[in-house]
Amino acid sequence: MDFIVPIKKEKSQDILNGKKIEKDFINFIKIVGKTKKIRRTGWKRKAKIKFGETIAEHMYGVAMLSMIISDNRNLNTEKVLRMSLLHDLVEVITGDLTPTERAKIGVKKSIIRERNALEKILDNFPQIIRNNYIGIWNEIQCKDSEESKLVNSMDKFEMAIQAIEYIEKGHDKNVLIKFIESAQDKINDAQLLRILKSLKYDIY
Fold it and tell me: pLDDT of 104-130, one tens digit each?
């Protein structure tokens, strides 16, 4: 993607100690804490699920499931976990946008907005950390590496799994099936598609 700005690799002169880094870390703790309170938009608006999955719960699910698949495929699991934990962190600033909302804004503009949000979140950390995390986030958007392809597919897979769980709890099946079908259309991983087909068999 030509609108993803490459990260210039430089040696950081920042020192990871002292009161400043501790203050910055405390601020980061508060930001991360917000992911446990912000509920995913689609469940609330479209499925009318008042107390649906939070951003933190979604990221945890993506991380855990991606870790197993990554290890099984001998990918860079450390990178996969970083991608899983960073991919939606920006939503504490941008909010959890539905596909319709992203389309209205425009894909390019929404990615730039999210990139700016991540830079704001990481602004006070040492440069070497900022560059690393922003570089990983850029990689997720480009979807060129095997790790980024897995995490992007797992992001949709986890949504489908959550929809199945909601159906099993008695929520509106007709609405939630649309979430599953939407996920299927966007999952570019044959193994995950086979697993999803097996899991959804009983609900159709």
Answer: 888 888 889 999 999 999 988 888 999
Binned at pLDDT 50, 70 and 90, residue 189 comes out as very high
Boundaries of every domain in the chain: 18-203
Largest CA distance in the chain: 57
pLDDT tens track for 15-49: 445 667 788 899 999 999 999 999 998 898 888 99
Spatial distance between the Cα atoms of 32 and 38, rounded to a whole number of angstroms? 11
Give the number of other CB atoms < 10 A from CB of residue 104: 11
- Please choose, from the candidates 125, 90, 128, the residue with its C-alpha nearest in 3D space to the C-alpha of residue 110: 90
User: Which residues contact residue 138 at a Cβ distance below 8 angstroms, ignoring those fewer than 6 apart?
Assistant: 4, 5, 6, 7, 115
Considering the segment(s) 18-203 as one domain, its CATH architecture is: Orthogonal Bundle (1.10)
Tokens of 169: 């709890």
User: 1 to each of 8, 55, 107, 111, how far by Cα in Å?
Assistant: 17, 26, 11, 11
The encoded tokens of residue 55 equal 């951003």
